Amino acid sequence: ADFKSILSLVPAIYMKDFKGLKTSGQLQLAGFVKGIYNEKAMPSARIKMLVQNGMFSYPGLPKSAENIQIDVDGYYDGVQMDNSTLDINKFHVDMGGNPVDLTLNVKTPESDMMVNGSLKCKLDLATVSDVIPLDSTVLTGKINAAIDMMGYMSYLENEQYEKFKADGNLTITDMLYSSSDM
């Protein structure tokens, strides 16, 4: 399918000039739900999504979101929750020329959640309104992030901080968010 198919599922994007939205890119989506639903179990489910070379551009706005690459595999085990996993193997977007990269892998969410992820971005928030119509919302400032983390939640709960890898930096400069609701 094309990339516009998945964008139609995002309420904020769908509500704003969706008919005039220009898109390109390929989407592969696969999944299943199977099993029994009762007091002891729920059906298991898996969803895999792959977006390659995605792009969207609103009419009348000067910039676009380009080079969208997404590789996500989520599995929910309805019988044994601890077998559930979330793998965001790749999430990349150039938001009006501002790169955002994210990876995240989560396993054993019930017994002792293991998290392995990274976030890298250089995002000028004022550019968001050049890419997505924000109507009465004002958004400015800059976010620079280079964060890596990996470890089990029990390390944090047991104050074994040296076992939990958390490296990097996050800088938010001159951020302003204002809307009619807030």
Descriptive report:
The chain is mostly beta strands. The protein is 10% helix and 55% strand. It has four helices and eight strands; from the N terminus they run ααββββββαβαβ. The chain has an eight-stranded antiparallel β-sheet with strand order 1-2-3-4-5-6-7-8. Strand 4 (85-95) and strand 5 (98-107) form a beta hairpin. It is globular. The two termini are 37 Å apart.
In brief:
It contains four helices and eight strands; from the N terminus they run H-H-E-E-E-E-E-E-H-E-H-E.
Main sheet overview: 8 strands, antiparallel
Number of strands: 8
The coarse silhouette is: globular
Task: Provide the gyration radius in Å.
Answer: 19 Å
Number of helices in the DSSP assignment: 4
Strand order of the largest sheet: 1-2-3-4-5-6-7-8
Residue-averaged pLDDT, rounded? 91
Oligomerization state of this entry?
single chain
| Proportion of residues in β-strands | over 45%
**Class inferred from helices and paired strands:** mainly beta
Order of helices and strands: HHEEEEEEHEHE
Helix content: under 10%
Report the end-to-end length measured between terminal Cα atoms: 37 Å
Q: Note poorly predicted spans.
A: none
